[in-house]
């Protein structure tokens, strides 16, 4: 049964024919659309490496069927920078050495963008750590990750205040 | 994952008809079902995607002051709904202590209540499991069973129910609204999940094709908002299932407990309501003695099902501490930090 869906991926509308309803958003991005920035760690919701934003909310793309998300707007790590200008969360990850091997990093960054959008953690390190607990880092770069998220949160809040 | 057909009904009645067909399973967000399908534990031949049925995603205040939570309301949206969290703080606290932010953004009210056990032998298709395959035996009985049940278990199954959300709902007498081909019915949450007995494969009172459409809490439940806590002990601070958890709520007037609500998670195959403990607390003065007594009563029937005698003492302590925290008052900041013993706010000593 051919199944056709439309997704807006990083701002670009795409029509996608699925040959099988089993395809997850993660496999669709990586295996069929060549967007390999989103990583597969566990494929079972346990690590957060596959985090993307769907309609502005961070979710685990490994536990989401593509077919269920017909019409959705998807943001992946590839869509975060504006040309050569990195997103404030990306800049903060570099500034704070918030990575070693980098495998978890796209998921961490997308999760941090989601967290800041949710507006529940502010710059309280305890709440940032709790809010980021769905992203494991095997290299243990957590200290830098927490600092980076707090700095990005502050940068984005002061930008928003300047704009207001 | 096995092959399956995919259908997306656009109304409750279509869903109920499709769900009753043999081999069908409802799909909400899929954060539990797809995981089980990837492991070959669940093998539905048809997924009935209920995720877009209109009218199931609202949080409504009812004329009598209660609240009706649609089956498709996402766990995060419920926890962060200000009015809901103010009136039912321990439900919000329980939701926020479950899974991760990503999972809570997807997970639904109905799916959370129907998530299946995390018993590792249930997950391992090479092991014997009566729940997966009735009559096969239970490898957990003589296996790694530190995390297994201490209340309500049977020789057929010693697993626990992993839902945090269900625990305060059981304490607060939530009602589950169910729709099937025969129409609508309602079941108290405390009767919704079944203890294993000889039939651990039958997990709830739902008949094939029956759909959860909503969960309701009454205005009475909101009367506990001033003194309510969910406390969850786990093997790491966050993103882990409960070893033991407790939802504790008190109504206190003139220094006396007027009424108490108490339920436990992580100890049985259903959220465990502790009614004897509640009865003993009613009329008592809040404090170490009455809380210890309540804790002892709640665990009076507990028996280890393996290497888990520690859970009985742990549950007593979690209850006493949850009651102490509840008596001190629901934290100002809502939603409260997830119910971790390491979380700030609502200290034992202030
Ligand atoms: C790594 C990880 C950690 C987790 N940690 C926790 C935790 O600490 N605490 C906790 O409570 N949970 C935890 N969870 C579980 C999570 O809360 C559940 O997976 C989620 O709530 C299920 O909701 P869903 O909408 O994705 O359900 P689905 O996976 O879509 O469905 C689950 C089941 O419910 C059925 N179903 C769904 N909706 C309905 C309905 N309306 N009527 C009838 N049947 C229905 C489905 O057929 C299926 O059998 C964790 C999950 C993962 C992957
Ligand atoms: S405890 Fe229950 S779920 Fe676990 S193996 Fe035994 S029968 Fe299966
Ligand atoms: S790959 Fe999705 S959570 Fe690990
Ligand atoms: S940087 Fe290596 S896993 Fe996080």
From TrEMBL, chain A:
In this chain the 2Fe-2S ferredoxin-type domain maps to 3-80
Official protein name in the record: (2Fe-2S)-binding protein
Q: Which GO terms describe its molecular function?
A: 2 iron, 2 sulfur cluster binding; metal ion binding; oxidoreductase activity, acting on the aldehyde or oxo group of donors
What are the UniProt keywords, alphabetically? 2Fe-2S, Iron, Iron-sulfur, Metal-binding, Oxidoreductase
InterPro entries found in the cross-reference section = 2Fe-2S-bd, 2Fe-2S-bd_dom_sf, 2Fe-2S_ferredoxin-like_sf, 2Fe-2S_ferredoxin-type, 2Fe2S_fd_BS, Aldehyde_Oxdr_Iron-Sulfur, Beta-grasp_dom_sf
Species per Swiss-Prot/TrEMBL record: Salinarimonas soli
What superkingdom does the record give?
Bacteria
From TrEMBL, chain B:
Q: What is the lineage of its organism?
A: Bacteria, Pseudomonadati, Pseudomonadota, Alphaproteobacteria, Hyphomicrobiales
In alphabetical order, the GO MF annotations are: FAD binding; oxidoreductase activity
**Keyword check for Flavoprotein:** yes
Q: Give yes or no: UniProt keyword Transferase.
A: no
**InterPro entries cross-referenced by the UniProt entry:** CO_DH_flav_C (IPR005107), CO_DH_flav_C_dom_sf (IPR036683), Diverse_Substr_Oxidored (IPR051312), FAD-bd_PCMH (IPR016166), FAD-bd_PCMH-like_sf (IPR036318), FAD-bd_PCMH_sub1 (IPR016167), FAD-bd_PCMH_sub2 (IPR016169), Mopterin_DH_FAD-bd (IPR002346)
Concerning PROSITE patterns, the annotation shows:
FAD_PCMH
Q: Which domain of life is it from?
A: Bacteria
Q: Which UniProt keywords apply?
A: FAD, Flavoprotein
Name of protein: Xanthine dehydrogenase family protein subunit M
Record Gene3D superfamilies: 3.30.465.10, CO dehydrogenase flavoprotein, C-terminal domain, Uridine Diphospho-n-acetylenolpyruvylglucosamine Reductase, domain 2
Q: Which residues form the FAD-binding PCMH-type domain?
A: 1-222
């Amino acid at each position: 049964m051919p199944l056709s869906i439309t997704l807006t991926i990083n701002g670009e509308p795409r029509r996608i024919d699925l040959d099988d309803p089993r395809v997850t958003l993660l496999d669709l991005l990586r295996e069929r659309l060549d967007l390999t920035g989103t990583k597969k760690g566990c494929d079972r919701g346990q690590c957060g490496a596959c985090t993307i934003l769907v309609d502005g909310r961070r979710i685990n793309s490994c536990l989401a069927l593509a077919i269920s998300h017909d019409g959705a707007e998807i943001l992946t790590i590839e869509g975060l920078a504006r040309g050569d200008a990195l997103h404030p969360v990306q800049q903060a990850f570099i500034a704070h050495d918030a990575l070693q091997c980098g495998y978890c990093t796209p998921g961490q960054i997308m999760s941090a963008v989601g967290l800041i959008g949710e507006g529940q953690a502010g710059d309280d390190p305890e709440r940032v750590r709790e809010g980021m607990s769905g992203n494991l880092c095997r290299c243990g770069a957590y200290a830098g990750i927490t600092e980076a998220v707090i700095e990005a949160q502050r940068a984005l809040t002061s930008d928003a205040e300047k704009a207001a | 994952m096995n092959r399956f057909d995919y259908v997306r009904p656009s109304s409750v009645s279509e869903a109920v008809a499709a769900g009753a067909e043999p081999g069908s399973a409802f799909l909400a967000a899929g954060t539990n079902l797809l995981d089980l399908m990837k492991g070959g534990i669940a093998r539905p031949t048809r997924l009935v995607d209920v995720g877009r049925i209109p009218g199931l995603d609202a949080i409504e205040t009812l004329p009598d002051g209660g609240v009706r939570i649609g089956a498709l309301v996402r766990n995060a949206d419920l926890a962060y709904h200000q009015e809901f969290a103010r009136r039912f703080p321990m439900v919000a606290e329980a939701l926020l202590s479950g899974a991760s932010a990503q999972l809570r953004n997807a997970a639904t009210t109905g799916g959370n209540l129907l998530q299946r056990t995390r018993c590792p032998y249930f997950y391992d298709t090479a092991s014997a499991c009566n729940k997966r395959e009735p009559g096969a035996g239970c490898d957990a009985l003589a296996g790694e069973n530190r995390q297994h049940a201490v209340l309500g278990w049977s020789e057929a199954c010693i697993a626990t129910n992993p839902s945090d959300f269900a625990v305060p709902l059981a304490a607060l007498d939530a009602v589950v609204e169910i729709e099937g081909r025969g129409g609508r019915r309602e079941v108290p949450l405390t009767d919704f999940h079944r203890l294993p007995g000889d039939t651990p494969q039958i997990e709830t009172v739902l008949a094939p094709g029956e759909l959860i459409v909503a969960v309701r809490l009454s205005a009475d439940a909101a009367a506990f908002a001033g003194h309510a806590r969910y406390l969850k002990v786990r093997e790491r601070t966050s993103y882990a299932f409960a070893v033991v958890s407790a939802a504790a709520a008190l109504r206190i007037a003139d220094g006396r407990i007027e009424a108490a609500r108490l339920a436990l998670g992580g100890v049985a195959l259903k959220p465990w309501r502790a009614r004897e403990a509640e009865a003993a607390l009613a009329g008592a003065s809040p404090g170490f003695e009455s809380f210890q007594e309540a804790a002892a009563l709640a665990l009076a029937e507990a028996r280890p099902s393996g290497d888990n005698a520690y859970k009985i003492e742990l549950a007593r302590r979690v209850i006493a501490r949850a009651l102490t925290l509840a008596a001190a008052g629901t934290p100002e900041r809502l939603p409260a930090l997830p119910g971790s013993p390491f979380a700030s706010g609502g200290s034992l000593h202030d």
